[in-house]
Every structure is written in C-alpha cells, then in structure tokens.
Design goal:
The protein has 147 residues and is of the alpha/beta class. It has helices at residues 11-21, 35-44, 67-76, 93-101, 121-133; strands at 2-7, 27-32, 49-53, 56-58, 61-63, 82-87, 111-116, 144-146.
C-alpha cells in the first residue's frame, strides 16, 4: 500500500478528494486539515505522496502560502514524497509555477503537478497514478499544470 497524505482545510473538498483517491488501487489516504497536523504526520511516518492545498489556516486565519511549509517538510523525507499542489489561487498561477520550477531544492523535483480548483476528478487521479509509477523524484521531471 502507498500512503498519501491529503492536506485540505475545506471538509467537503477533502471528502471528495479522499473519495476520488481511494479509487486508485493500492492507495491509503490519511487526511488532515491543519499545517501542524500534516508536519507531525510527516515526521512520524513515511508517505509516498502528498496532495496539499496552498492556502491553509494557521492559528485560525487563512495563510495563502501555508502549504509551502508542508512541501519543505516533504522534501526532508528519504526518499522524498511527491507533491501535488491543489489550489484555487488561479490569480497566482505564474507565481506558483515559478516556485515549483525554482532552483530552491525544497521544491524542485518533488512538486509534480499543480491542479487548480475546481479540479477534474480524472485529471487528479491520473496525476496521482503517474506519480506513483515513478521510481525517483530526484531526477529532473518537469511538473504539469492541470486546469
């Protein structure tokens, strides 16, 4: 079984994504709503992948870039987990893509997809399935943007 950590603060969206991803053979989903819970899980268990919203609550208020803290923690895992960003921040598309393509080793090569909400179920499942079949994320693998 491949463990996937889902980090999404909106309960309805989290339930829908969890429902969609449990349909992928060999996937076990752990779902959390808070940055602190996600980091705690990453420090105590190994995940094959992470699906993370960028805008998450910290101390009761939404922080547009809170998801990057989770991505940094994912990069510390050995082997590193793949990351699929799921966000509704379409107005920040260029900035998100630039961060995922940056020379910053924290992001480069582990961010595999950026999926914008409202997401297409088939595209999200395809993104996760393709990431799970890759052997390594250390090599330069261009990520994809799905709308």
């Amino acid at each position: 079984m491949h463990r996937i950590l889902l980090v999404e603060d909106e309960p309805m969206i989290a339930s829908a994504i969890e429902f969609d991803l449990t349909r992928i053979r060999g996937v076990l989903i752990d779902s959390v709503r808070l940055v602190e819970d996600a980091i705690r899980r990453l420090r105590n268990a190994h995940y094959r992948g992470i699906v993370v919203d960028l805008q998450l609550p910290i101390d009761g208020r939404l922080v547009p870039d809170a998801g990057y803290d989770i991505i940094k923690e994912a990069a510390r895992q050995r082997p590193p987990a793949f990351v699929v960003i799921i966000t509704q921040q379409v107005d920040r598309e260029a900035e998100i893509i630039a961060a995922a393509n940056s020379k910053n080793k924290m992001y480069k090569n582990i961010v595999q997809y950026v999926v914008f909400k409202p997401y297409d179920t088939k595209k999200l499942k395809k993104a996760i399935s393709q990431c799970m079949t890759r052997k390594s994320f250390h090599k330069l693998v261009p990520f994809r943007v799905e709308r």
